[in-house]
Task: structure prediction
Amino acid sequence: MKNSYTEVFAFVIKLVLGITFIVASYHKIEDPAGFAGIIYGYAVFPGGIINLLAIAIPFLELVAGFSLILGVYPRSALLIMNILLSGFIFIIGFNLLRGHQFDCGCFSFSGQSNTASNISLLVRDVFLLGAGIHLWKKISAS
Result:
């Protein structure tokens, strides 16, 4: 019985991660200039790569999300997701440490943010990264 619970848990993680990344990519693909403004607002990246990141990241999120859900190269999808989540955690944490207010641009471009909501973003991303690492270990062991 334990094995079926493990399989169900892994399936739920796949769905949660995949859907999260697919939904997060939608508005960024729809408005790359808006997303470029969000990336610029983090004040971490050199200006020359902001547009490239604004175009590439959403498509990486979209492809990784569908790939994970459909089971097409799931290890690669998880690797991309875990790398992106690690980057998001670093950038959000770095901006929180320096007291910089920012809009994460995760699921929409609101233009408003506060420290409490940004801390919840950090917690959410750490949780998602933990789920991604758990799933990575499970898939790698198979």
Remarks:
- The mean pLDDT is 89.
- The first helix runs from residue 2 to 30.
- The two ends are 18 Å apart (CA to CA).
- The chain has five helices and no strands.
